[in-house]
Amino acid sequence: MTEVISETVPTDAEHSGLRLRGITKRFGSLVANDRIDLDILPGEIHCLLGENGAGKSTLMNVLYGLLQPDEGTITVDGRPHTSRNPKEAMAAGIGMVHQHFMLVDVFTVAENMVLGREPGGAGVLDMRSARRLVRELSDRYGLAVDPDMVVEDLPVGVQQRVEILKALANDATYLIFDEPTAVLTPQEIDELIAVMRSLRDEGKAIVFITHKLREVRAIADKITVIRRGKVVGTAQPTDSEAELAELMVGRAVSLTVAKEQTEVSAEPRLTLQDVSVAGPSGAIVVDGIDLDVRGGEILCVAGVQGNGQTELAEALLGVTPVTSGEVRLDGRVITNATPKQTIDAGLGFVPEDRKHDGFVGSFSVAENLVLNTFAERPYAKGIALDLGTIRSTADRLVEEFDIRTQSIETPVSSLSGGNQQKVVLARELSRPLSVLIASQPTRGVDVGAIEFLHQRLVAERDRGTAVLIVSTELDEVSALADRIAVMYRGKIVGIVGPDTSREVLGLMMAGVPTDEAMAAATTTSAAEEEAAELAAARERVESDAAGEDAR
């Protein structure tokens, strides 16, 4: 790590801001950050755009003191700075709102706010001062939070407000938001954007880390694109999503999914009747779901993460027990069948956590491509593996699914996230399926791989397979779905078409029934149209008046 000179440098307008020069961070042979230069200035929202694994979060963890750089320097308002831990970063005015909230669920908001710097003395906690701090910050920044609420009882969007207030409580000038929208509904995302704009207008510097092009264009004042650990360029918020995607990936990418109408089977291939599933604690997390998926259609299950989607998918595979209800595949009851039995019945499964559940990292590409069929013909002869058939199958699938690997003998752990996901999908689609369940199929995958994976999912639907996709990405849901089922707290709120607006879907994701969500969205839309017409009329009047004055 480069030593930071401790001499004081005068602060002036030229030196104001947070400036990173030549920041390099290595993990063994992997260079996560490669000589990165970055200027973060007060009064700006600076978006760091890049795919998962590009090095964005590593860079911000260096800035926040969670990691130490191997090379490079940081200055804050012209003064050399190093953060050996988050406490030193906070002392320098740097705050971070993490993607995964750093809150203690069983503590109140006030207790979380002052954790580590508790007011009071002689071993007595001054909760009155803690509550007053929460109220003062809530009023100042327009972030309404009850200081006495227990965090686990708060909606996710309010929990994020607590995270923001924690950073502001330390008088942070530089605020890092690391993928802050991953667990929010569209309405909560809009609220967060409004909060970030107000903080910017107060003179705060905002670093917004994301891979979502829509959000970047909505909020950024400045955009820096990072690819494979390097800054590859800057962009403007007015640039199209296609232009931003090309800069991220390094080639032109189609962001639309080509999808034609297909013939849907008369009978459902997958049927759920009053299905309930319990979580590890015994609490019901999937609550009396009725659902069916027909051959030749994609049904997407949408919702904020943590509303029972994961447990539902795992129960269909047979990993998690169904506590009540019935599951049928092509008319055959598979309730609480083992994973081997459901796979043999014609179910394909792409798990949401591929590294944990989708492959064996130390196994080769070829081995992973037959992971669930290696003991069957044509890959086995008696108790012996047919290595020639396994290799020829791997060669064919690597070409068909465009898996970028040096060799079929390469360990899957060494592949990029997108290529790892291609291995998982290729394995599942290499056999005849009745039903394909894909949970978060493009999580942690670059834009180019997303394009390919979407094409293959649609192609499988076109073959007559019933495809059930669980996704928290609304753009993905709208692009792929023939029908959308929205989950909230373990229940299906409603099932709607793919042309349903983001606003309606967002309200449903917050638990609003379908009819009410549609009515509310219609009312809001009418009000917005009226406001736009009034603004246009006012502009015309002012323009006419200015013309009269000029004459």
UniProtKB/TrEMBL annotation:
It holds the Pfam family ABC_tran. InterPro entries: AAA+_ATPase, ABC_carbohydrate_import_ATPase, ABC_transporter-like_ATP-bd, ABC_transporter-like_CS, P-loop_NTPase. Residues 18-253, 270-514 form the ABC transporter domain. This is ABC transporter ATP-binding protein. It comes from Microlunatus ginsengisoli. It comes from the Bacteria. Residues 536-551 have a biased composition (Basic and acidic residues). Residues 521-551 are annotated as: Disordered. PANTHER family: CARBOHYDRATE TRANSPORT ATP-BINDING PROTEIN MG119-RELATED (PTHR43790), GUANOSINE IMPORT ATP-BINDING PROTEIN NUPO (PTHR43790:SF4). The keyword Amino-acid biosynthesis does not apply. Keywords: ATP-binding, Nucleotide-binding. One of its GO terms (molecular function) is ATP binding.
